[in-house]
Amino acid sequence: MERIRVTLEKSYKDSYEIFIGEDIMGREGWITTVKNHADRYVIITDSEVNPLYGEMVREKVRETARPVDVIEIPAGESSKSVTTVLDVVRQLIRLKVSRKSVLIALGGGVVGDVTGFIASIYMRSIPYVQIPTTLLAQVDSSVGGKTGVDLPEGKNLLGTFYQPKAVYIDLSFLKTLSDKDFANGLAEIIKYGIMGDHNLFEFLEHESDGIKKRNPSLMKSLVGRSCKIKADIVEMDEKELGLRRILNFGHTLGHALEAVSDYTLFHGEAVSIGMVGAAKISHTLDYLNNASYQRIVDLIKHYHLPTRIPAGLDTAQIMAFMATDKKAVGGQLHFVLVKKIGAPFVTPEVPAGVVKETIEELQG
Ligand SMILES: NC(=O)c1ccc[n+]([C@@H]2O[C@H](COP(=O)([O-])OP(=O)(O)OC[C@H]3O[C@@H](n4cnc5c(N)ncnc54)[C@H](O)[C@@H]3O)[C@@H](O)[C@H]2O)c1
Ligand SMILES: [Zn+2]
């Protein structure tokens, strides 16, 4: 089992470990990290994950000889809401969950974001651990402590930075994941390769056959490398004051495409096109050479993710959505670009004309 430590500068007590392995839920003592703090556990999971893994995890947690309850929320993004938060909180009160209790987020990014948010505000905060079950949650949302829910006005508008006590990544959960959810996670891993690690990029190029078949040892390597990149960046910039923004590579255009397509493009697809867009802008502005740009496009194609904007999405609408990005500073849009594979930087200086031209070239 691989272990990665996330050391946060604020205080030692905020640091935690990520455990990665095949079938770690089946092992003795996996939850000992938090056992000392807990008088009881509450597993928060969703309606698709619960029938698959709820009972198994509950059985394992029961071995700690503490009471364990399960709260199920409906699967899907619509559960990332204030309504869900209030509903779950009322159940916690009924269960007499105290500050000594520990919440366990068992599920994808939705369950992780909602559980982390509740843990950060319930009784002025109680501990929680993450057991991410989607590839996206394993390589992205479970690491870094961003929590939150959506509002009708937009995604993730209400949230906190609140770190888990531990993250347990069991790769055996990936076996039941749909192709769409596997692709969503892969797009984020490709992102880490492009913006974070040239070796990871080459690994993705060379091992694509096995990765597409979800080969466990290749997946372990991919998930471990991805978590390490994210953990290193989060350690340096927990609250996204600067550096952490490079993790948004491909997401400025990606988020706009997701929204303008009315979410018919799923996140991984939108981010894939967004990464091609960011690479193309990097090339147009003479930061990235043509060969590297082509390698990026080829890698994304290789994993059957899209590289072009589907017909029917309006350029003006895409541009307008990007202008509302909550990461814009003083109305100025910040783009994450690359100088070469593995060398990202953030710039507010991409002319609107270049963005528009790029979108038009990627259309159709
Ligand atoms: N906090 C962060 O830093 C961060 C980062 C990226 C994304 N996010 C958030 O994460 C969310 C997306 O996460 P997601 O893609 O994991 O979505 P999700 O949680 O909705 O999971 C996708 C689907 O897969 C099902 N599922 C989960 N694990 C499964 C398994 N092992 N086998 C079969 N089915 C399984 C779920 O029930 C759900 O239907 C978004 O809300 C996004 O905003 C947060
Ligand atoms: Zn993403």
Q: Can you walk through the features of this model?
A:
It is a single chain. With about 375 residues, the protein is α/β, with parallel strands linked by helices. It folds into 2 domains: about 180 residues, Rossmann fold (3-Layer(aba) Sandwich), CATH 3.40.50; about 180 residues, Up-down Bundle (Dehydroquinate synthase-like, alpha domain), CATH 1.20.1090.10. About 45% of the residues lie in helices and about 20% in strands. Strands 1-2-9-6-5-3-4 form a 7-stranded mixed β-sheet, sandwiched between helices. The protein has a two-stranded antiparallel sheet with strand order 7-8. Strand 10 and strand 11 form a beta hairpin. Helix 3 crosses helix 4, helix 5 packs parallel to helix 9 and helix 6 packs parallel to helix 11. The protein is globular, with a radius of gyration of 20 Å. It binds nicotinamide-adenine-dinucleotide (NAD) and zinc ion (ZN). Nicotinamide-adenine-dinucleotide binds next to helix 2, helix 4, helix 5, strand 8 and helix 6.
